[in-house]
Amino acid sequence: MRPEILFPLYAPVTSLKGVGTRVAPLLEKLAGPIVRDVLFLRPHNLVRRTPAVLSAARDGEIMTFELTIEEHQRARAHAQPWRIRASDPTGWITLVFFGRFTDQLEKRHPVGEKRIVSGRVGDDKFGRQMVHPDYMVEPGKAREIPELEAIYPAVEGLPPRRVRTFALEALERAPDLPEWQDPAWLARERFPSWRAALARLHEPETEADLLPQAPHMRRLAYDELLAHQLAMAQRKQDRRRGAAPRIEPSDVADRVQADLPFAFTGAQARSLAEIRADLAAGERMSRLIQGDVGSGKTVVAMCAIADVAAGGGQSALMAPTEILARQHYETIAAPLTAHGVAAILLTGRDKGAGRVEKLRALASGAVQVAVGTHALFQDDVVFQQLQLALVDEQHRFGVSERQRLQSKGEATHFLAMSATPIPRTLELTVYGDLDVSRIDEKPPGRTPVATRAMPMGRIGEVEARLRQVTAEGAQAFWICPMVSESEVSDLAAAETRAAELTKRIGPGVGLIHGKMTAAAKDAVMADFADGKLSVLVATTVVEVGVNVPNATIMVVEQAERFGLAQLHQLRGRVGRGRQESACVLLYDPPLSEVAQKRLDILRRTDDGFLIAETDLELRGGGDTLGLRQSGFPDYVFADPFAHRDLIAAAGDDARMILERDPALTTPRGKAVAVLQELFDWRAGAKLKDAG
What we know:
Elements: H1 23-30, H2 35-39, E1 45-48, E2 62-73, E3 82-88, E4 91-97, H3 105-108, E5 114-120, E6 122-124, E7 127-131, E8 135-137, E9 148-151, H4 160-173, H5 183-189, H6 194-202, H7 215-241, H8 251-259, H9 266-279, E10 286-291, H10 297-310, E11 314-318, H11 322-337, E12 343-346, H12 352-364, E13 369-372, E14 386-392, H13 399-406, E15 413-418, H14 424-431, E16 435-439, E17 449-455, H15 459-471, E18 475-479, H16 487-505, E19 509-512, H17 518-529, E20 535-538, E21 551-556, H18 564-571, E22 581-587, H19 593-604, H20 608-619, H21 644-660, H22 667-679
Parallel strand pairs: 4-7, 10-15, 10-16, 11-13, 11-14, 12-13, 14-15, 17-22, 18-20, 18-21, 19-20, 21-22
Antiparallel strand pairs: 1-9, 2-3, 2-5, 3-4, 5-8, 6-7
């Protein structure tokens, strides 16, 4: 139950003065439905309104003048503005107003009266002017104009000044909450109290107060990180409380591994040992295998599946696309079947008697492994004894979808796989409730991919080279960028490129894109994998889950438009056999400094984890590594780059709190429980995590 002290912050935004039926939807769109959301709005700029004279006016700057009203110039037509000519002893200016209520201006500001006017100065063909001044008050009310004013986000119909009014009222309602931070940490970091930090947030004194490294911003960021880390630590703790089936290492898995045409790398062997230790512990496993493209995650998972089957249990491996599910099935089915472990592929395309037979085999236990898509967690899919749920590219599924799969068994072990490298400093924010195994070695025999960057002006050379090598039997990907918000124009660009390449190279050019049906994609991919197509023109639908060992060339058009981690994953589609492979990054000059560094690092290394760290450094904050699509939490105050030193500290603090006070009954524990409710990060909530 929510603590009573937080009731004022959980009141609806309509409880704020001036938030009626018209304003409420706008404020909810901007901030959220409750007062706390308005309290957590952050100003993005600071305006100084220093008094000046008109002769000192500067174009584009916000300035404040004491003016005399000289003349009102009424609008001649509805669409035209109302203009007021005003002056001081050093010059004159035109005040410009649009809208329905301009006829009231003459009553409120009669000719001959003095007014304090503040707003942005502009110069155009009409001379010096100020469009819709921010303030226009009588001299006796000059104190109503703040010398320093925080500027908030706004939406149409709700200007920044109104938003500021609501934010300040929300601040007035913010109670003094019990201190949840460790006193020694608070003193070391010189953090203000929570209430004082919010006050400085909404009433900044300098531009430095808006920066993420300001003490009050670090305080608020740490509060948010601590709430999140504690919720994930509680989630992990809850999982471990429940008993789970003990699954011992088996000679079946050892034989499957021995039959592989390659030896495990040290990282693969270490990851399998960690998984086996979890499975044998009698507690529910929640582990992630994080590994680069082609690092061998699937075969490690296959050995865990063999252990489960040897113990009499079943496993389900869920992938986000049919292409990827089919690839996993083709990787693991034959090695497992050779040792008596039966596997099926279950996707949305299975219909009728064939589907019924597969479901019967799962329910009876005749089949030990199901590989598939969303079809795996449908209501009519029943397992005899599901003990291991595996999810590939787990961020592509919602929490409820992953939980529906796990609920097909009792105390099901959970193993996630991800080919999106995440810097160590950010691992806790995304995978804080999982144990992480890293496969950071490449399997032997993988040929490094030669990477070159070339301007788009040399595209003709690339096409000519492609014609030559495809005539010799090579295959190539050609990636078209998502250059606009319109899928239609993106598709048109890909179709145009495919048509041009067909003219230059011949009929062996295929096209695959996100608007195609799963069956159509599979058909094109099958033709490419079988060598019937020489070149596959694609959008980034091939980024994950396409394995064509004969493809040796990757061309990425307008590479500067892609993120570094995304380019790295695209490059990983080639170099999967023993032939020399190449990646050509075509770009539109001139390159920005960041884009230049991004392409340089790709040329220098194929280490996905190093690339991820570099991408973090180059991007700074913002959408780090494209993680908005990778399960990254939507933090309000915490910036993953600027506050990365706080992430590990919050994780350590959360674990210490639970070790000392698992039920949160001490004074600090009770304060921390208030913190979790404040940010809505609770163990029982639908966290943006992997479990």
